[in-house]
């Protein structure tokens, strides 16, 4: 039996990790530390018996020290972050506060409890980062590897880059046993409806426009969130302290292709699921029309990176990581989850 502290565990990726870990490691206890901002939702992990939710801020170093000591935690999995690029453009301060100062607070607490006061037992501080720290790729550039130079282009990605460097520094300076994974674009259940896939799915159901930045040809690598959780598990098990690993889905697609697939999946669902037209009468598909008629081009986002791509060779070779979901099946599963869990996302829209 092991005890984990999962920061941001009531958010999208963190919440999925709590569900995944509790299913695959049923004897472990999970302490979730989350301040329940707009993107954190206690209902995301409701019903997970192994998880205890503590509402608090990762910048509260004393609280983190207390949790590590009282629960005999030897593993921190650090998801907590401000992560929406658009919000970082209009309000960067929150990203510095949470992503940089918050990560430093966690590292200080871990160092004090595990190293300064600890018995020398094995421990792990695992930090979840993003491929956005590497900047933007040209059409023919090789995919991001673990040795790609950092070139962040938004306040969000700059704050994550800073946190990555802090994690590395605590390993090399103090001997804290850390690992970092840089992931590509996640999608799946419990995704807050401000990101592309859940936003477009829910807009399609209510007949609202599908706003496409620029020409819609920005390219991302799409990673089903359960595969990401599997990659983190592999890193905790096999990752070498002090090292970083790229976790991707192997599905490099332009946004327009993703949007077209969303439209097709919504149309398919209305054709296959009885009663869907009555539940969502404002959807074009409820009237026999194509969801794609909702596509609307809008002004491009400032500093919009053109292409991300992940080279996951190292994670496959050293961690044994292999994604198990292709985009077609992952997207269909995601859509059906939102259709089956309206009681989760409807209150979020009401906010």
UniProtKB/TrEMBL annotation:
<feature type="domain" description="NAD(P)-binding">
    <location>
        <begin position="5"/>
        <end position="333"/>
    </location>
</feature>
<dbReference type="Pfam" id="PF16363">
    <property type="entry name" value="GDP_Man_Dehyd"/>
</dbReference>
<dbReference type="GO" id="GO:0008460">
    <property type="term" value="F:dTDP-glucose 4,6-dehydratase activity"/>
</dbReference>
<dbReference type="GO" id="GO:0009225">
    <property type="term" value="P:nucleotide-sugar metabolic process"/>
</dbReference>
<dbReference type="InterPro" id="IPR016040">
    <property type="entry name" value="NAD(P)-bd_dom"/>
</dbReference>
<dbReference type="InterPro" id="IPR020904">
    <property type="entry name" value="Sc_DH/Rdtase_CS"/>
</dbReference>
<comment type="similarity">
    <text>Belongs to the NAD(P)-dependent epimerase/dehydratase family. dTDP-glucose dehydratase subfamily.</text>
</comment>
<keyword id="KW-0520">NAD</keyword>
<dbReference type="InterPro" id="IPR036291">
    <property type="entry name" value="NAD(P)-bd_dom_sf"/>
</dbReference>
<keyword id="KW-0456">Lyase</keyword>
<dbReference type="InterPro" id="IPR005888">
    <property type="entry name" value="dTDP_Gluc_deHydtase"/>
</dbReference>
<protein>
    <recommendedName>
        <fullName>dTDP-glucose 4,6-dehydratase</fullName>
        <ecNumber>4.2.1.46</ecNumber>
    </recommendedName>
</protein>
